[in-house]
Predict the 3D structure of the following.
Amino acid sequence: MLEWDIRKLQILRTLREQGTVTATAEALRMTPSAVSQQLTNLAKQLGVPLLEAQGRRVRLTDAARLVLRHAEAVFEQLERADAELSAYVHGEVGEVRVGAFSTAVPALVVPAVRALRATHPGVSVRVREAEAGEAYELLAGGEVDLALSLAAQAPEVGDGRFTRVELLADPLDVALPRGHELAAVQGVRLADLAGESWIFGGSGPWSDITRGACEAAGFSPRQGHSAAGWTAILAMVEAGMGVALVPRMAAVGRGGVVMRELGADRPVRHVVAAVRRGSEAGVAVGRVLSALEGVAGGLARW
């Protein structure tokens, strides 16, 4: 019988995800030499080569990929065991660490925490704000128990490490200066704004979302200014410096800005929650996920 070392298998899986020994060491808070030594020992224990040189990098051998394919089932079962043991020991008491992007915190997480305080006061939530893509890195690394992200930045549905739950299709409205000629028009279409100066981030998810929505409406947006925070974006809109797409879930506004719902071509962004596969069996995680679904269900009636 071979000797299977869970810790070493976790290091091998992290190497597959990170791509280099250095990045793996940083993710696991180890030294590169310690990572290499652990993987060398694992290869000796299993009796097969796990890594092969590829220029200045290393890549997993077919044997390593075979090992990890079976190890994923082990990791999932361990997550289930951990969740069930926690439920057995703590019952309705537990802490759930949630990683969420900025607009999801006030719109989804805070109302869910309030609801849980009333129904399950023994379940506590510790929130960590993170960019949409970063939330999954924290989840994979075990630093949060539940991640809120945008579908565009989430791993593929078939990723066996996670269980995903579709929470909400968040409509995008257009922010216009109060004196804009379309500010009083109902059912504005994105195509009506093709000649405008647009305000959005230079890169990242919001840049992709804005460009994608405008291109679907038949034009490429002309970026007049670059900003990532809603306070800065809306201040520039208010000053007449351009227009912007704003998620309704952001629930922000300024006196000099008019929010207009878009017509038939109204774009949306999809918000998803995810947990490590198997951990959804945990009572506390399940309670938080249910509370988030309840809040999202109310927002979906926009």
Summary: The two ends are 59 Å apart (CA to CA). The mean pLDDT is 87. The CA atoms of residues 201 and 227 lie 5 Å apart.
